[in-house]
Amino acid sequence: MTRTTRRIVLAAAVLALVGAAIWYLSRTEPIAVPVAPAARGVVEETVANTRAGTVEASRRARIAPDISGQVTRLAVSEGDRVEKGAILMELWNTDRRAELELARSQRQAAEAKAQQACQEAEAAAREARRQLQLRQKDMSSEEAVDQAVTKRESARANCRAARSQVKVTASQVDAARARLERTILRAPFTGTVAEVNAELGEIVTPSPPGIPTPPAVDLIDTACPHVSAPIDEVDAPQVKVGMPARIHLDAYPEQAFPGRVMRVAPYVLEAEKQARTVEVEVAFDHPEGIEGLMPGYSADAEIILDRRDDTLHVPTEAITEGDRVLVLGDDGRLHRRPVKTGLSNWERTEITDGLDAGERVVLSPTREGVADGVPAVAEAAEDGE
Known about the structure:
Strand content: 25-35%
Helix content: 25-40%
Structural class: alpha+beta
Mean pLDDT: 88
CATH topology of the largest domain: Elongation Factor Tu (Ef-tu), domain 3
Number of domains: 3
Radius of gyration: 44 Å
CATH class of the largest domain: Mainly Beta
CATH architecture of the largest domain: Beta Barrel
Low-confidence stretches: 381-385
């Protein structure tokens, strides 16, 4: 090799090194992006309440006497379980009990008088028949027959009047009993006493019109609790009675309880005109298995509109406007790709076309620097399903 040739080779090597250095220094560093694989599994389309819902008892009665009076008996305490019809509270009612006893005595007297009058009517009827038979044989006078028949009709009238008086006194007994019952507070259904707002010897009075006051006894039926929660008016037409749901309770953060829609309110609440809602009630499937479940707990209801059991899906956060995703290809670059979507919720979106299982999609497609054709590497281990 001549000196000139060596100089040419050396110059070419230097140029190659300089070019490599320039490329190295000016190359684009791949960006790290979080990714997740397209996988097969369950996808559900759901709607949820817009504000926190509340666990409510199937029945609740805030009850108080409808008359004023002094409490002479408190038969229950907070937390007691009572049967339907059990006495909860009683006001002073000695006078009304006496009225009831008087009415019962008057009814008994009226019944005795009626029995006597009707027996006399039967005797008068027999005598009238006898006089008529004798008259047919010319063994009795016309006057005797008239007297017997008149006495018979009079006795019958007395019997009817006496029986009517029995009905009057029976009504008086019913009225006296009703007045007495107004002093006794009874459980309208089987339930648990949640609150008692009265003391022995205290005077209780009904609430004045338009001024609510605490109930004397707050009774709740915890046998069949449900969740009442508001959903957006836009979602309401999709929700039907009988749809399955999942109930989430703040008191049980690690659990979701199965339920079913039991009612959709037929009206829209306008408490907040910018976010009008429809109240939905969701019943627990197995409330007896939830230890310590109490009315008043805050709750969320996730209603399942539709479900696919074995379908391709990606995290919903990977979908951008126009149903597109960024795929991290085997060439180390990002590729924007249109896809067709199906069911969707806040966590997963079904992919019906445009992706294959295992392809990696970017979870932060709107982050600065993330774009079609950009070199990239996976930021962390891919989430498994």
